[in-house]
Amino acid sequence: MIDGIVHRVRTGVQWRDLPERFGPWKTVYERHRLWSADGTWERLLQQVQAAADAAGEIDWDVLVDSTIVRAHQHAAGARTDPPPAPASKGAERPEHQGETAWQSLHGRLVEVVREVGAWAARAAGSPPNST
C-alpha cells in the first residue's frame, strides 16, 4: 500500500494508472486519502525525523539560494538608510535624541493619540456649535 502511494507521489501518474503490483488503485487512493485526513502522514514524518535527529543524520541548517527568491519590482534601488526624521517645530527635545527613526515614529504616534483623546474630551464637554 505504502509503496503504491510513494510510487504515485514520485512519478506523478494518475491513480488509475498505478501498476497492478500495488493492488487496486482505488484501494491505494482511499488509504492515502484517509491517512492524509487523519494526520497519519504527519505523525509518521515526525517519528522518522525524531529517529534520524537522534542518530545525528539530520543537518538542521537552513540555506536559501537568493537566486530563486524574487524581489518585488519596487525593491530595486530602494534606500538602505532609514528615512530622515521629520522636522519638528522648535528645537528637538532631548528625550528623543539617540532614538532610532522607528522609536521616534512610535513616540510621535503615541503623542498624537493622546492629543486626539484630549481634543475629543474637550469637545464632548463643550456645547454643540450651530451654524
UniProtKB/TrEMBL annotation:
Positions of the Insertion element IS402-like domain: 1-44
Positions of region (Disordered): 72-103
Family annotation (Pfam families): DUF4096
Highest taxon of the lineage: Bacteria
Alphabetized PANTHER family for the sequence: BLL5188 PROTEIN, TIS1421-TRANSPOSASE PROTEIN A
Protein name per its UniProtKB record: Transposase
Species: Streptomyces inhibens
